[in-house]
Amino acid sequence: MPGSTRIRLLEPADAAPIAAHRARDAEALRRWEPERPAGFLTAEGQAERIDMLLARHRAGSSWPGVVLAGDQVIGQVTVLDIRPEPHMRRGTVGYWIAGTAQNRGHAGRALGLVLQVMTGELGLRRAEAATRLENLASHQVLRRNGFSPYGIAHASIFIDGSWRDDMLWERNLGDQA
Length: 177
What we know:
By secondary structure, the protein is of the alpha+beta class. Helices cover about 30% and strands about 35% of the residues. The chain contains five helices and seven strands; from the N terminus they run E-H-H-H-E-E-E-H-E-H-E-E. It has helices at about 15-25, 25-30, 45-60, 105-120, 135-145, and strands at about 5-10, 65-70, 70-85, 90-95, 125-130, 150-160, 160-170. It has a seven-stranded mixed sheet, with helices on both faces. Helix 1 crosses helix 3 (about 45-60).
């Protein structure tokens, strides 16, 4: 149920459930994401990744979160490339939901919740995102959360053996004091 969707800051203990989801969904995610290093789908690989993300969070350049349904980790939502300078105040959002929890509204609710973090805790004014052109489900999630497409980044990411285009999205989060 989407109403039970929550987000919170990523924790080291999230490595095992994230690794389990990523390993189970590896084939489905292959068409959306770049190739990952050996060990990425293991709890140890995810623990290293979590350490790196939390270091970036401490440095102020990211807000790495997990998506929860009840108390179960079902995905991630992350704000990357945070630019808090007064003349920029923006961040880039990325998210994924485990295959077992898709099509229940979790992605849209998680995105809405992280937008609140962006305006409140992070004091940002602009949210950006990028999706593969053919990822219509993600386009729908972004549109429902007030994002608009503004361009195409041609040959911007190497996925599944070739360079792919991304659709670029934006949302003005309003002026902050």
